[in-house]
Design a protein that fits this description.
alpha/beta; Rossmann fold; 2 domains; 6-stranded mixed β-sheet; 22% strand; globular; disordered N terminus; signal
């Protein structure tokens, strides 16, 4: 009887412990700092993704989802320390983030050290799923190559001459390197590359070097800009009248606040990760409707990305049957899931999420505060030959 009682007691404790177990997720992101607008979108999207994928319960298999927020302030050393704290002290099952590529690169070795999954969203640099990658890293966000290949399709061609302007850190340099590679064989020539510090506000000297390099070149001349955050390089270079040298400005997509500056460039073409009117699917319909009701605005660039990450978390845990790291990795390699952008798939070789991009042409419309990146065509996974860079 005593043995039976003790066995029953142990079973009851085990059941109670299982019932009280939480799924703990750390969101390590730049909640404050230069990219806080991106960060808020990413967090709102993550929470909406978890909500959508769980049917509003915020539970998976009866276990409550707990999201622990940690603010990197956009500092790599903070990202590293906070992820160590999340895996070690908080004992989270997995982590999501960050916003900045520089912060992400500092965090990658921590995931390997603790043998825990880190889902990178929305940091972009190719090296995250390339040279600096390890098997615990999955990325739902697009990488520089996806931006580059999509923009090369939109902008490249015979007799096209391009100068580039980008930020002088991983995001900008990886982006330009991938863009140049993607243009190979298209007949496009890169005439000049210009890199500026991330906090640059005066682009006069950079613009003059670009103009001097391009002024005597023959062909369809474009200045392709890769920039994150403030500074408004496109507007400031445009104010210097590049058209006198036959130069047209081009760039990829951006958040709605930044798209306001695109109103100076009607007809400009490029490729974007997301604009709320472009994808046509039930998940995006829910996101647009729900975000408008809750926040009074359409969902933005990184809201869709955060939601895609949240849905991926839920689908991965369901497929793995829990939060064991090895089971998660096995479930996520090759995993396909539906997002506001349609189907995504984690490529088994480097855990990069393959996904659609959108070729756009800028349309300016009265009563709309931003330029509309009107869809020219969706570039599907099959249209985008994204290199594997972790070899």
């Amino acid at each position: 009887m005593k043995t039976a009682f003790l066995t029953g007691l142990v079973s009851a404790i085990a059941l109670a412990s299982g019932a009280m177990a939480d799924i703990k997720i750390a969101h390590v992101y730049g909640k404050t700092g230069p990219y806080e607008a991106y960060a808020k979108q990413s967090h709102d999207g993550l929470m909406m993704g978890l909500e959508y994928a769980t049917g509003g319960s915020m539970e998976i298999n009866g276990e409550k989802i707990v999201v622990i927020e940690k603010d990197t302030q956009l500092k790599p050393e903070n990202g590293k320390a906070l992820l160590e704290e999340a895996y070690g002290d908080d004992e989270v099952d997995l982590a999501v983030g960050p916003v900045s590529s520089g912060v992400a690169l500092a965090m990658l070795p921590v995931a390997e050290e603790y043998e825990k999954v880190l889902i990178v969203e929305p940091a972009v640099a190719d090296s995250i799923t390339g040279a600096n990658w390890n098997r615990y890293i999955f990325r739902t966000g697009r990488n520089s190559s996806q931006d580059a290949v999509a923009n090369a399709i939109a902008l490249g061609g015979e007799n096209v001459k391009i100068a580039t302007l980008a930020q002088d850190y991983a995001f900008g340099r990886d982006g330009i390197a991938a863009f140049k590679e993607a243009l190979a064989g298209t007949g496009t020539e890169i005439v000049h590359e210009e890199y500026a510090p991330t906090d640059t506000t005066d682009f006069t000297a950079a613009a003059e070097r670009i103009f001097n390099a391009m002024k005597d070149v023959e062909g369809d001349k474009k200045l392709f800009v890769i920039w994150a955050g403030g500074g408004n390089p496109m507007g400031k270079v445009q104010a210097m009248d590049p058209s006198r040298f036959g130069i047209k400005i081009a760039t990829g997509g951006n958040i709605l606040a930044a798209l306001a500056a695109y109103k100076e460039f009607p007809g400009m073409e490029g490729a974007t990760y997301y604009y709320y009117e472009n994808p046509k699917n039930e998940i995006n319909d829910w996101l647009v409707k729900t975000h408008q009701e809750r926040f009074g605005t359409p969902p933005d660039f990184f809201t869709a990305g955060g939601m895609s990450a949240g849905i991926a978390v839920v689908e991965a845990i369901k497929a793995a049957g829990g939060t064991d790291t090895e089971a998660l990795i096995s479930a996520m390699e090759g995993m396909e899931w539906d997002t506001p952008k349609g189907k995504m798939m984690f490529r088994a070789e480097d855990h990069q999420a393959l996904q659609s991009m959108y070729h756009f042409k800028v349309k300016v419309e009265d009563g709309v505060d931003w330029a509309i990146p009107e869809l020219v065509r969706e570039l599907t996974i099959d249209d985008l030959p994204i290199p594997i860079r972790n070899k």
